[in-house]
Amino acid sequence: MTRYNALKADAHWQSVWDERRTFAADDHSAKPRSYVLEMFPYPSGRIHMGHVRNYTMGDVLARYRRMIGHEVLHPMGWDAFGMPAENAAMEKGVHPGSWTRANIATMKAQLKRLGFALDWTRELATCEPDYYGHEQALFLDLFAAGLVYRKESSVNWDPVDMTVLANEQVIDGRGWRSGALVEKRKLSQWFLRITDFADELLDGLAELKDWPDKVRLMQENWIGRSQGLQFRFRLSDAGEVEVFTTRPDTIFGASFVAVAADHPIAQALAARDAEVAAFVARCKQGGTTAAELETQEKLGFDTGLTAQHPIDPAVRLPVYIANFVLMEYGTGAVFGVPAHDQRDLDFARKYDLPVRRVVSDGADEDPVFVGDEAYTGPGALVNSHFLDGMDVADAKRAIISRAEGEGWGTGTTVFRLRDWGVSRQRYWGTPIPIIHCAACGPVPVPNDQLPIVLPEDVSFAVPGNPLDRHPTWKHVACPSCGVDAVRETDTLDTFVDSSWYFIRFASQPDDRPFDRTVAEEWLPVGQYIGGVEHAILHLLYARFWTRALRHIGKLDVAEPFAGLFTQGMVTHETYKSDDGRWLSPPEVENGIETATGRPVTVGRVEKMSKSKKNTVDPEPIVDQYGADAVRWFMLSDSPPERDLPWSEAGIEGSWRFVQRLWRIVTADKAAEGDDLALRKLAHRTVRDVAGDIEGLQFNKAVARLYTLASAIEKAAPSHDRHAAAHTLLLLVAPMVPHVAEEAWVAAGHDGLIADAAWPTVDPAMLVDDEVTVAVQVNGKLRDTLTLAKGTAREELEAAALASDKVVRALEGKAPRKVIVVPDRLVNIVA
RNA sequence: GCGGACGUGGCGGAAUCGGUAGACGCUGCCGACUUAAAAUCGGCUUCCAUCGGAGUACGGGUUCGAGUCCCGUCGUCCGCACCA
């Protein structure tokens, strides 16, 4: 028996699949369609284990779907714009484009070595003009439809690097690279009107049945719809202040009005009064981290202004500037009802404001509210004029209709979701196709001038945006009036690139972003697989972009991803030397640091990360064990949504199984005779593994395949054994495709196993004629009986009572009651 | 603080409907083959123990029967966060 040579077989079959274009999807196929997609990678340099796990899962599903006769679209590409390329440019002096393209070449070769069934004919990279040019066209379509606008917005500005920083690049208020104190700067930036779609994005979640509940909930909270009343208070200085509340029913319990420190009213007062200015400045101090906010004291500053109650003009509420009111949410101003809101109560107690009960818990109707715990539960309105006696919901409706009738307020829905700011003051991104003209304002670049290509001759040696500094690139004539004008030098957020790549995969004509008819044949993506870290932003933006395209009549698809699966991470033990250095796995052997011979502290199993040195590079592992062993390991043991702990022993176990498969299938010979039990097991396994793969429960499929493999090994030669070995080979083919192809040939088959059909199940083989029945006495298992399936209740009961073990357990007591579940169990209660 | 998920052997985990807990894999141990080793094959591997008993984080409950359902407690992880 020859040992299976994985490396040789890997290379051979990969080139065969390539040459035959086995996995290229046919747009004109009459077969049922399956669009299987994993989140495309950022070309950071090398493939990591997380990629391997992600793409292996999608690959098994894609290959399985092909075997059951689907036309499968399973493409791959590169999310190739982004800051790491610019960082590399600054650190190593390489051009971001060269760096990115070299990484793509490396990673593509690495992916190929894993034998993924990908349609490489549709490969795309977002950093190439033949992708981002079409993105510019789509951006202009949205612009024409009024879904793009420009407004002032503040950014984190690094005054040394002269660059805008993302929030995660600001560490303790300083730029991560320069260490300079970061300033807030107002810049005019482009926004997409995602908030116009807030309602449909929220309501659409309900239809996404094949999404994890967790992700739907996260998006729901992120969109954050609140319904309430927006209304105006008249101020004592003749001005007005507009507030939003979700509890308009409690309006008669109001005892103060509070505005944010950057609210226009506060700003106006601060401009005149140094004391106010000092307070406003104080509000802006302090961090915005969770812990800081939680412990931060509620501070208020009494402006001396008063607000007139909209219904009872005799009531005048003091107006405070308060540090807990956010300008970004609602109207930047609130009214405080201390009896029924905890934060308002804390504030009222601190500044000695009245606390008036307006909702009764049923026990207490006294207008004077005592205690330090606000009542937020249900009840009847009290001390509230015409609202008295109503429940909370009725009172809300009554007050909103009165406000609308009298013209001082309106029922409103407020969202937490903000419009999507897409401007980035960066080089390595999609240029925003707009020209700024002094006379005409912002003018879209005419479609026939697209793509607006990034200039290649840029330098990162000097700080600032290279596009802005470039001597000629931005200077152009206004397309509208012809006078000298300048290009927009901001580029698009890379989340825009990933908001439509799945559409471009489905259809990629040269002259437009996609062909509507072809794209609609494939979309939506049937199964999308990726990390949970994209649960909100990427998935929400892609949903928005798709709906926006539908809105402007470009594509009739509401939701881009019908099914979503978020896979767990690949983890590894961590190791520390006795002097506290992190050690990488190869530096450690049997708990000893090989270099020093000293013992090592084994830490917790954690996500693979460079900082903790617990990463395992897939490439040498593939070199050593072959692609199939790595793929098999990725599917084994851990449920795919949970973390997978990488282990040396585990990969060796997988390698052994690949070898064992090879032996089982190649040593198997045609023979005579039946083995009904094995035949039944094989059919059951076909059915169950199919279900497991469809449900992405690969760990269960793996366990079943081990069981079938062991049963075949133990069985005596027979016709059924021969058939079972053949079945086993087909079942493992989506998971370990290289050894499967090799064994397919060795068994004398023509063609590729990749093109073979999934085995059919004979329903007759799924029924058992014998069953094992559990026999319990008082709920405790005492015996098991093997009986014909469908044995009558009376017979079951009699057989159970006749069991020696039951008789012993009864200790002479008479059964009081006997529960019989046919074909399952008998429970004797004594 | 709010919201959510989870808690099963030495480890990863299985048990789809309330019906035989621990499938399958890893580790470990014993044995076969071998001059020897590797590879491979066979057996054992929840705990305590003599019969037998206990056991799915802990404490209660419902039920003939609970890993699974309900209530409470503890713990771990994730998301959001002064949201009006």
Automatic annotation (TrEMBL):
<dbReference type="InterPro" id="IPR025709">
    <property type="entry name" value="Leu_tRNA-synth_edit"/>
</dbReference>
<dbReference type="InterPro" id="IPR002300">
    <property type="entry name" value="aa-tRNA-synth_Ia"/>
</dbReference>
<feature type="domain" description="Methionyl/Valyl/Leucyl/Isoleucyl-tRNA synthetase anticodon-binding">
    <location>
        <begin position="678"/>
        <end position="792"/>
    </location>
</feature>
<protein>
    <recommendedName>
        <fullName>Leucine--tRNA ligase</fullName>
        <ecNumber>6.1.1.4</ecNumber>
    </recommendedName>
</protein>
<dbReference type="InterPro" id="IPR009080">
    <property type="entry name" value="tRNAsynth_Ia_anticodon-bd"/>
</dbReference>
<dbReference type="InterPro" id="IPR015413">
    <property type="entry name" value="Methionyl/Leucyl_tRNA_Synth"/>
</dbReference>
<keyword id="KW-0648">Protein biosynthesis</keyword>
<keyword id="KW-0963">Cytoplasm</keyword>
<feature type="binding site">
    <location>
        <position position="610"/>
    </location>
    <ligand>
        <name>ATP</name>
    </ligand>
</feature>
<dbReference type="InterPro" id="IPR014729">
    <property type="entry name" value="Rossmann-like_a/b/a_fold"/>
</dbReference>
<keyword id="KW-0547">Nucleotide-binding</keyword>
<keyword id="KW-0436">Ligase</keyword>
<dbReference type="InterPro" id="IPR013155">
    <property type="entry name" value="M/V/L/I-tRNA-synth_anticd-bd"/>
</dbReference>
<dbReference type="Pfam" id="PF09334">
    <property type="entry name" value="tRNA-synt_1g"/>
</dbReference>
<feature type="short sequence motif" description="'HIGH' region">
    <location>
        <begin position="41"/>
        <end position="51"/>
    </location>
</feature>
<feature type="domain" description="Methionyl/Leucyl tRNA synthetase">
    <location>
        <begin position="39"/>
        <end position="170"/>
    </location>
</feature>
<feature type="domain" description="Leucyl-tRNA synthetase editing">
    <location>
        <begin position="220"/>
        <end position="403"/>
    </location>
</feature>
<feature type="domain" description="Aminoacyl-tRNA synthetase class Ia">
    <location>
        <begin position="417"/>
        <end position="573"/>
    </location>
</feature>
<dbReference type="Pfam" id="PF13603">
    <property type="entry name" value="tRNA-synt_1_2"/>
</dbReference>
<feature type="short sequence motif" description="'KMSKS' region">
    <location>
        <begin position="607"/>
        <end position="611"/>
    </location>
</feature>
<dbReference type="InterPro" id="IPR002302">
    <property type="entry name" value="Leu-tRNA-ligase"/>
</dbReference>
<dbReference type="Pfam" id="PF00133">
    <property type="entry name" value="tRNA-synt_1"/>
</dbReference>
<dbReference type="InterPro" id="IPR009008">
    <property type="entry name" value="Val/Leu/Ile-tRNA-synth_edit"/>
</dbReference>
<dbReference type="InterPro" id="IPR001412">
    <property type="entry name" value="aa-tRNA-synth_I_CS"/>
</dbReference>
<dbReference type="GO" id="GO:0004823">
    <property type="term" value="F:leucine-tRNA ligase activity"/>
</dbReference>
<feature type="domain" description="Aminoacyl-tRNA synthetase class Ia">
    <location>
        <begin position="606"/>
        <end position="646"/>
    </location>
</feature>
<dbReference type="Pfam" id="PF08264">
    <property type="entry name" value="Anticodon_1"/>
</dbReference>
<keyword id="KW-0067">ATP-binding</keyword>
<comment type="similarity">
    <text>Belongs to the class-I aminoacyl-tRNA synthetase family.</text>
</comment>
<keyword id="KW-0030">Aminoacyl-tRNA synthetase</keyword>
